[in-house]
Design a protein that fits this description.
By secondary structure, the protein is α/β, with parallel strands linked by helices. Helices cover 43% and strands 15% of the residues. The protein is built from eleven helices and eight strands. The chain has helices at 17-30, 46-53, 79-84, 95-100, 105-117, 130-134, 138-146, 177-194, 197-202, 213-220, 237-251, and strands at 6-10, 36-40, 59-62, 89-92, 121-126, 159-163, 204-208, 227-230. An eight-stranded parallel beta barrel has the order 1-2-3-4-5-6-7-8, surrounded by five helices. Helix 1 packs parallel to helix 11 and helix 7 crosses helix 8 (177-194). The two termini are 13 Å apart. The structure holds phosphoenolpyruvate. The site of phosphoenolpyruvate (PEP) has 13 residues, from strand 8.
Length: 252
């Protein structure tokens, strides 16, 4: 089946208010059709970036969210707050949150469910460390992380899986086309068994990990790769849009 690729920029803890607005405007100016494009700025710039995206097809995303609706949770942000600002997609389980900030599978699972239940699009990030790949544990790790979804997903349009091998994130070392396709096909088969072949067929599976204009054509052309989650290369409109353009070309 033909899925519309989704190319999303994860700006992480980068940009200033003015560079965030500038970057968002440049993405809007250069946005191509035939691919879904989104950006996830730091929380504090969501409002300003949302205003810069207004009237365009570029989606606003958040890098994280808390599991509760409101209350005494100092420093946290709720799905209602994100929706108030026009956010349409939210990440859960990014490797930096798992491995740097120490988020455990239960919390990732709770966050994923909270995002989906709020009517937002969930991007669940999964992927193995280098030690796990070397120990041939990639499929086991990814299958376990997909288990964080539970059985509550019914709308495949609001579920996106980002396959991001930890060893490829921010390292300049991307997965090979074959490694990416193998993992993506495994994810789709796992979703087909857990849910249904039809749901699995409709879910977008993004590749993430040192995706750049010079490797995007080949990676995004893989049969089960439906766009990308992009860190470093999303901080420059030119490279981010070149990847979006590669996604359109790959879909032809
Ligand atoms: C990411 O953080 O999701 C990511 C893929 O980063 P980078 O593109 O910089 O490897």
């Amino acid at each position: 089946m033909k899925r519309v690729s989704f190319v999303a920029g994860n700006w992480k803890m980068n940009t200033t208010r003015s560079t965030a607005i500038e970057l968002a405007r440049a993405v809007v100016r250069g946005a191509v059709s035939g691919v879904e494009i989104g950006v996830a700025p730091p929380f504090v710039y969501l409002d300003a970036v949302g205003a810069a995206l207004a009237g365009s097809a570029v989606k606003l995303g958040a890098q994280d969210v808390y599991t509760e609706k409101s209350g005494a949770f100092t420093g946290e942000i709720s799905t209602d707050m994100l929706k108030d600002l026009g956010v349409s997609f939210v990440l859960a389980g990014h490797s930096e949150r798992r491995h740097v900030l120490g988020e455990k599978p239960d919390l990732v699972s709770h966050k994923a469910r909270t995002i989906y239940a709020a009517g937002l699009t969930l991007i669940l990030c999964v992927g193995e460390t280098l030690a796990q790949r070397d120990a041939n544990e990639t499929f086991t790790v990814v299958r376990t992380q997909l288990g964080e979804l539970g059985t509550w997903v019914t709308d495949p349009q609001r579920l996106v899986i980002a396959y991001e091998p930890v060893w490829a994130i921010g390292t300049g070392r991307n997965a090979t086309d074959a490694q990416a396709q193998e993992a993506h096909a495994f994810i789709r088969q796992t979703l087909a068994k857990t849910y249904s072949p039809d749901l699995a067929d409709h879910v977008r599976i993004q590749y993430g990990g040192s995706l750049k204009p010079d490797n995007a054509n080949a990676l995004l052309a893989q049969a089960d790769v439906d766009g990308g989650l992009i860190g470093g290369a999303s901080l420059k409109a030119e490279s981010f849009l070149a990847i979006a353009t590669a996604a359109v070309a790959a879909a032809r």
